[in-house]
Amino acid sequence: MSCKCYAALVPAGPLVPHTIERRAVGPDDVAIDIKYAGICHSDVHQAREEWGSAIFPMVPGHEIGGFVGDKVGVGCMVDSCRECQSCKEGDENYCATGAVMTYNGKYKYKHCQEYTEDGGKPTYGGYAQSIVVDKNYVCRIPDNLDLAGATPLLCAGITVYSPMAYNGLKAGQKLGVAGLGGLGAMAVMIGKAWGCEVTVLSRSEGKREEAMKELKADKFVVMSNDSDVEAAASSLDMIIDTIAAKHDIPTYLSFLRQNGKFVMVGVPAEPLDFHAFAIIPKRKTITGSLIGGIRETQEMLDFCGKHNIICPHELISGDKISESYDRVVKSDVKYRFVIDTSTF
To answer: Which of the four, 53, 124, 137, 225, has the lowest number of CB atoms within 10 Å?
Structure first.
């Protein structure tokens, strides 16, 4: 079926009105009437081909909110091999042969409805008015959550929730959040609902008020302020590092207590340096985390429903997508752009 969307027709080109064909609804599929799509920084990277060769025309969007009778959402993947240990354990995001990503991917497995012998048809994401997805990769969004605000949870929310859960964060512990963009804001809100004391670690004094008053963080550390940095030494049990630019890892590690965990979810373009002595004497851990599986994503949505957590956002029309990309790069948004697909 034909579907209106916005697409990048060429690498680094503008996002323009376009039409794609969605597959017929199969026996295990659901057809979702998309109402909203969040803009993730990774959309910008891929549409501008900053992460390597990509598939064009590209319809980005892996934060998808809509209806199949009930409120539903689709996140970063729409299928996986289903046979490896990771998939069997519900960690489809770590599929041994690679999950089928919601866009800029291919339906490469034989069980996929759009599998072909030459590698599968391309996937097209959520900057569209509809999508057809295998029901096993669709999550239910709690009724009490505003759909536009809940849509970014499908990437930003699960990206920070998963490492908190996997690494054993407990109520009463002290959580640091490095960076205060979309991921950082969600980490603060989820961390507070978790029952933690939350400290924001930021390079900008200008973000103190929004961190403390709007997001209800408990403490704020300006990384260029020597007294702030000294006072925060050995104070945190875990840090969620959302920063996607080069930064001084040893200083952040100094904020961890013995057995503290430093979890990277942001992806800087350049390699980062640290000395082994920054972690060995206090048995600190550096680890990473990539979104979450479908089961855990549903768990995260239910958690957010219980605590009335949505992502602060700016609603935009389709003709503002290209402009919003430039603003994302400048960190000029609180904290996610969400596209209203009725404007297509």
So the answer is: 53
Q: Domain 2-155+311-343 belongs to what topology?
A: Quinone Oxidoreductase; Chain A, domain 1 (3.90.180)
Instruction: Please give the Cα distance from 126 to 5 (Å, whole number).
Output: 8
Q: How far apart are CA 220 and CA 198, in angstroms?
A: 9
Residue 39, helix vs strand vs coil: strand
Please state whether the peptide bond connecting residue 152 to the residue before it is cis, i.e. omega within 30 degrees of 0: no
* 3-state SS string for 168-180: CCCCCCEEEEECC
As a whole number of angstroms, the distance between CA 126 and CA 36 comes to 8
Report the run of H or E that residue 192 belongs to, with start and end: helix 182-194
Q: Domain 156-288: which topology?
A: Rossmann fold (3.40.50)
Question: pLDDT, tens digit, for every residue of 97-109?
Answer: 999 999 999 999 9
Average pLDDT over all residues of the chain: 97
pTM of the model: 0.95
